[in-house]
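writing this on my phone so excuse typos. first protein, seq and then structure
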Amino acid sequence: QGILLVYDITNRWSFDGIDRWIKEIDEHAPGVPRILVGNRLHLAFKRQVPTEQARAYAEKNCMTFFEVSPLCNFNVIESFTELSRIVLMRHGMEKIWRPNRVFSLQDLCCRAIVSCTPVHLIDKLPLPVTIKSHLKSFSMANGMNAVMMHGRSYSLASSGGGSSSKGNSLKRSK
């Protein structure tokens, strides 16, 4: 009823192979809804396929686009949910559709931490290494990098003045 075309964001060859799969789909399953999925978002720092390029490709081929990380359970449910919605709409069953907009607890925690912590300070958080790695990838993947939280931006600024202040501190600005 629907097709997920999945490529690895850290492997250019896997993205380039999507054309072949689209030809197969057009030949054997024309009109079946499809979604383009960039997998392994938790490895965004090793990215070989830019998000904008994949998004443009999906748009050109009339597909919805998601980047996911099964390891972090990021956007997996959302991509399957969207494919389900498209399939139901295609078959005139939109009355069955009941969207669920609840974020997972992990997603909410990541958004909260990343929204107020610059990516270069994540290593200083008292968290396990695997969680720090996930937060860095989440930050880069979502372009959040502590840009805004509750209408205020946060940035790293050196402490001014006396000899008692050492290093850097997180400074809030409007």
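second protein below, same order as before
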Amino acid sequence: RRMEALEVHGATAAAQHFWLRSFCDVYLEAIKPSLRRPDPDPSTLQTLLSCAELGLRLLAPLSPFLAEEL
């Protein structure tokens, strides 16, 4: 919504909040034990990849060089 309203600062804050607070702080910390197993759950890996892709797609218009590097 913030991108459609051309609120760049708000869109950047929303993307940063998703990436840092929701994805890294919550989801990655929750699945660390699962990822340490020799056979991690495929649905966990699929969710991880889907969230990472979403986060990078949100970040790309705001920080293209950073998103490309990640």
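The mean pLDDT is 84. thats all i got for now
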